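Researcher: Before we compare anything, I want clean individual predictions. No alignment, no superposition, just each chain on its own. First chain goes here; please echo the sequence and then give the C-alpha cells.
Model: Echoing the first chain and its structure:
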Amino acid sequence: MMTLGLTAVMAVSLLAGCGSNNNAGSGESGGANAAADASNGADAGGKKKFAIIFKNTGNPYGEKMMEGFKKAIEEKGDEAILKAPDQPTAEAQIQMIEELISQKVDSISIAGNDPDALQPALTKAMKAGIKVSSLDSAVNAQSRNTHVNQADPERIGRTLIQGVSEMIGGEGEIAILSATSQATNQNTWIEWMKKELEDPKYANVKLVKVAYGDDLRDKSVSETEALLKSYPNLKGIIAPTTVGIAAAGKVLTDKGLKDKVKLTGLGLPSEMAEYIESGVCPWMYLWNPIDVGYLAGFAAEGLVAGEITGATGEKFTAGSLGEKEIVADGDGTQIMLGDPFKFDAGNIAEWKEVY
C-alpha cells in the first residue's frame, strides 16, 4: 500500500516537475526583478512573491526541491523566486535574506545552513511582515513560523542504523559521512543514530567517526578516502546526504571495495542506481524532494493568506498531497511529509527514471 501510495504521489509530482523550468542558482527566477516598491510584496498583476533559499548550488536534491516549490506557488497563481548560494554557508544565506527583505517579498522558505546564525536576519524579515518557514534543514523555532520536515527524524536515524547493521551482519566498525557540521537535519538524524546504537543488540557495532563533506562532491570524496585510510577495518558507511552517498559510492566502486565496505544513507535514485545494482549500496532511503518543496510552497501560501499561523493542530490542504496537519516540534512546530522510502535492487530500475 505504501508503495502504491508513494507511486501515485510521485507520479503527480513528476508531471508537475516536468512542467516547470528550474533556474536554481545564485541568481533569481520566476520574475524576481518585478517591481520591488509594492508595499505588500505583490507585483502590478497582483501576484505575491514567494522566495525559497536552498543550501547551495550544484545539488540535484536541492534543484528538485525548488522545482516542487515553484510548481506549488505557480498553481496558486503567484511568483516564485529560487535562490541558492555558491557555497553552503550561513553568511551567504544571510546576504540573500537581506536582499529579499529589500525586495519586500511576502514569504521566505529556507533550508538553513546553520540553525542559529540565521536568526537575526530571519527575525528582521518577520518584523518586516514576511512569513518565514524552513524546510529540509530547520532554523531555530524563534526564526520561523513553522518547519516542513521530510520525515520523522527519529525514524530516519534509527532506520539507517538498522540498515547498516543488517548489511554488516551486526558486527564491525561504521562511519557517518554527513554534510556540514552545522546542518540541523543531519545533526538531528545523527543524534537518533547514536541513540539507536545504545541498544544492546548493537554491542558489536562501533561508530568510529563522523566526517563532514560539506555537501560538496570533491570534499565528500576526500573524506571518504580518509575514512578508508584511517580505519582499514571499516565495514560500513552511512551517508545521510545525497551528495555524500553518491561520492562514497564512486570511491568504493573505484577501489573495488564492494564486498568489504557496505554503503547506505539518503540518496537520489537516478544517481545511486548503478551502485545499488552493483551491490556497493545494497539499499538506501529517501523521500521525493519535489514533494518536500511542493509541501513547503503550500505551507508558505497558507501562512501568507492567513489560513494558518504555524500553530499546533492547524490543518491545510497542500495541493495534490492532500490535507496536512501542523504538529509540535520542540519549542516550535513542523509539518511532516511522510516516512522514508527504501530503494533496493528490486525497485531501483523503476525509480531511477523518476528522479
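Researcher: Okay. Second chain, same rules.
Model: Second chain and its structure:
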Amino acid sequence: MKVAIVHYWFVTWRGGEKVIEELLRLYPQADVYAHVVAGEVEREHLGGHRVLRTFISRLPGAQRLYQKYLPLMPVALEQLDLIDYDLVISSESGPAKNVVTHPDALHVCYCHSPMRYVWDMYRLYLDGAGWLTRLLMRPLMHYMRLVDSMSASRVDHFIANSAFIARRIEKCYRRPATVIHPPVQVDAFECCADKQDYYLLLGQLTPYKKADLVVDAFLRSGRKLVVIGEGEQLKELKTKETDKVRILGRQPFHVLKEHLANARALVFPGVEDFGIVPLEAMASGTPVIAFGKGGALETVIESSDPSVATGLFFHEQSVAAIEEAVARFESLPVAVSAEACRRQAERFAPARFREQISSFIDAKLLERRSSAPL
C-alpha cells in the first residue's frame, strides 16, 4: 500500500509535527509532502523518508515568508501528483487538505483546527493589522474561506484532535469528525511530588494567549511566577519583571522540563484547540489552573475526588478571575496529587494514539474495499 502524508509546513517541531512523527512510525514507507521544509527539521526528524515540496518552496524567501504565500497554497497543493497513492493523510491547520487524490484512494484529514486566521480568529488578525493589510485581507480571506470550504469536500473522513475542534469542523465545513487526541510524549517528563514555591506560565507570548493577564494577576497578588516562552509580548512583559515575577523567555528543553516538574501549578489562560502543555505539566506531576474553555476541558479534571483531580478551572479571562483561581487552588482541602496528574497524562501517550489511528484507518480501508464493485 502506497501512503502519502501531507503537512502544511515543517519549520519547527511542535505538537502538530509530533502527530506526523507518530504517523511515520505507523507508516514507515510513507512519502511526505509539504509547502516548505526547513533543512534542519528534515535532517533531524524526516531522515529516511522521501520528502517532496510544493512550488511554494521555490518562491523568493519561502523559508521565512512562507505564510505570505498563503493565497497560492491551494493551487500548489493541486499540482502535487498523488495519483498512485492508496492512502493519503493530510495534517491540517494550515493549507494541506486541498490535494487531488485517485478516486479509489482513501483521504483522511487529521485536523488540528480549521485555519484560524481564515475562520474564527479572522477578526483578531484584522484588528491588529495596518490599514493596507486590512484592505487586502477582506477580499483575500473571503477567497480563502471559499477555497477551504471546497477543499473539505475532497476529504473522505475527518479526525479532530479534540471535541472542541470537531465542533469547529462541523461549523466551518458541515462535516462530522471522529475525535482522536494527539500524542503526548509522557515519558520525556519525570513525575515530581516535591514542589517549589512558584507557579509557571509556559507557551507562546501572543495577545490571544492572555499571558499578560497572568503576569498582572501575580504582580497584584505578590505570588511567585516564572514565565517561559517567546513571542510578540515578550519585550512588553520583560518591562514588568520583578524579583517575584521572572520572565525567562525561550529556554532549552531541560530547563523547561525542570520548571514543569518543580512548579506548584501551571497556569493556562488561553483557549487552545487541544493543548499539549497542560498534559506535559501533568506528566510532571504538576496540577493545572486553566481557563475553562477549549481543549483544556478534555484534559484537566476538576473534582472533589482527590484520586482523579488534576487541577481546576476559572471561567473568565481576567486578572481578578486568575487571582481568585490561584487562591482557590491554595485553599483546596486536599492538595491535587502528583500521581493523579501523571495517571491522567498517561492516557494520552503515543501508543494510545497510534492504536486509535491505526484502528480507524484500517476500518475505513476495509469499508472501502468491501464496497468496491467486483
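Researcher: What stands out in the second chain?
Model: Residues 92 and 157 are 13 Å apart (CA to CA). Additionally, The longest helix spans residues 131-152.
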